[in-house]
Amino acid sequence: MSKGHSSSKRNQTILSHIVLSSLSLLCLLPFYWLVATSLKADMQVHAMPPVWFPHPIVWENYPKAMVYIPFLHYMKNTIVICVSSVIGTVLSCSLVAYSFSKIKWPGRDALFVLVLATLMLPGQVTMIPVFAIFRWLGWIGSYKPLIVPCFLGNAFYIFLLRQFFMSIPQELSDAAKVDGATEFSIYRMIILPLSKPALITVGLFTFIGAWNDFLGPLLYLNDDTKYTLSLGLQQFVGQHGQEWQLLMAAAVVMVVPIILIFIFAQNWFVKGIALTGIKG
Questions:
Q1: Which of 36, 206, 238, 253 is least enclosed, having the fewest CB within 10 Å?
Q2: Same domain, 101 and 28
Q3: How distant, in Å, are the alpha carbons of 94, 164, 222, 266, 268 from that of 274?
C-alpha cells in the first residue's frame, strides 16, 4: 500500500513537472520569436510559412539598429531616470513604512488605510490633474515629473515594506532605545540592514517600471534629446516601420538589461516576496 502510494505521488510529481515545463516553453515562445526575428534577413521576416530558424543568421541587424536611432544616448537618459526613481522610491517608501510599522502615533492606522485607498484610483483619473500641476510648476519638458514623485512615496511599496518591517521583532527596537538610539538610528542601523530582500524587491519593481514606462515620457518630454528607450523605439517605428528585423534587434537590446538584473537579483527578489506579509 505504501509503495503504491509512493509510486502514485511520484507520477503526479512527474506529470506536474511536464505540464509546468510545457507552459514555461509556451511563455518563452514570444521571446524566442523576438530574438529569431532580430537575426533574420529582410526577406525572411514576412515569409510564409514562417521561418522559425533564421538562416543565415544576420548579426549585422544589431549594429544597424543602434545607428538608426541614438540608442546609447536614449539608454543613458533611461538609466538616469531609473536610478533616480529607485533611490527616491526606496528612501521615501522605507521611511513612511517605518513610521507606519514601528512608531505609534495618533491616527496612524486611519492614515495608513487612506494611503491604501489611493491604490483604488486608476492612473487615467489622476493623469490630467497631475499634468496640470506639473505644467503650472513649469516642469514639462524636463525629467522632474518622472523623478520627483518617486521621492514622495508609493502606496503599494509602502504597504509592501510595512508588512516586512512588522515581521522584524519589536524587541530589537526596544533594546536599541534602551541604549539611547533615536528612531532614525534604529531605522538606519537595524531595520534597513535586516530588510535587504524587501528593499531590493521594491528597487527591482521600480527599475523595471521606469525602464518600460512609455506613457510618462510621452506626456512630459517634448525634446528628442531627452527621450528614453521606449520613446526611441516608438520613434524607430515611425521612421523605419517596415524594417521589423531592426526593430526586433533594438527591442532585444532593451530587454536584455532587465533579464540580467533579474537573474542576479532573483534570490533577493524571491525572499522579499516570500517574507512579505508574515504579519498583518
A1: 238
A2: no
A3: 18, 10, 41, 12, 10
